[in-house]
Design brief:
TIM Barrel; eight-stranded parallel beta sheet
Length: 276
């Protein structure tokens, strides 16, 4: 049982990654993001997840500089967007992200979506970045089982992480099992289903039992499935509340009840139909 915000999962190359992080999708590049990141770091968060597509890497870099935490204690993730995929363009995209973040290295660099015909050469560029020490670990985002199998058939390095949409209405059981079997750490984006599941009667009932919020119940459910969670919030109180999930544990029956809410419902794009 994960009992503290400082606890980490050990990735397949030995790098340690926090179980809980702050997602910054749709956060503005100025004061909004700086305030949120500083609040998160004060609460104990050490993992921040951004992307080229979010257009706020400069804000992330500025905030972590000003937070006064040693760089080696932080875990910074970014991703390259679909129009940058390909070998040379990926190397260029990485350098641009690194410069915007103003960091000597990135902890985790991800392929944002599995663009058909492109993600294999993109992965070769990630392998180069990893071997040269510019990135501590590399992974993918929004990859289905067939994408992972296709990628791994021609790669030297198995992805360390697969960041996917994961919440009680999209449990992706087969993908989670595949990732566990291949030592790929699954990570949940939109773990709270963009807030659309938080008034569900079952979650309200379980939350009442533990004197917790439904958000805390869902994030605890993530951790007990051994899935890293990166809830997004700009609200300081909510950022703190999302971290208050280490002092209770869901029963096996409650885990099954939440699993049973699955409808294969996506709030975001379908990885098999990328037209963006």
């Amino acid at each position: 049982m994960v009992k503290n915000i400082s606890e980490t999962t050990t990735l397949n190359n030995g790098v340690k990654m926090p179980w809980l992080g702050l997602g910054v999708y749709k956060m503005g590049n100025g004061q909004e993001i700086e305030k949120a990141i500083k609040a998160a770091i004060q609460t104990g968060y050490r993992s921040i997840d951004t992307a080229d597509f979010y257009q706020n890497e400069e804000g992330v870099g500025k905030a972590i500089k000003e937070a006064g935490i040693p760089r080696e204690e932080l875990f910074i993730t970014t991703k390259m967007w679909n129009d940058r995929q390909g070998y040379e363009s990926t190397l260029k995209a990485f350098e641009e992200s690194r410069r915007k973040l103003d960091l000597d290295y990135i902890d985790l660099y991800l392929i944002h979506w599995p663009v058909k015909g492109k993600y294999k050469e993109t992965w070769k560029a990630l392998e180069k970045l990893y071997k040269e020490g510019h990135v501590r670990t590399i992974g993918v985002s929004n990859f289905q089982i067939h994408h992972l199998e296709d990628l791994m058939a021609d790669s030297e390095i198995v992805p360390a992480v697969n960041q996917v949409e994961f919440h009680p209405k999209l449990t992706q059981k087969k993908l989670l099992q595949f990732c566990k079997e291949n030592r790929i750490q699954m990570e949940a984006w939109a773990p709270l289903m963009r807030g659309r599941i938080l008034d569900h009667p079952l979650l309200l009932q379980i939350a009442g039992k533990y004197n917790k919020t439904t958000s805390q119940v869902v994030l605890r459910w993530d951790l007990q499935h051994e899935v890293v969670a990166i809830p997004k919030s700009v609200n300081e109180n909510r950022i703190a509340a999302n971290a208050d999930i280490f002092n209770f544990e869901l029963t096996e029956e409650e885990m099954k009840q939440i699993d049973a809410l699955n409808e294969n419902y996506r709030t975001g794009g379908d990885p098999d139909n990328i037209n963006f």
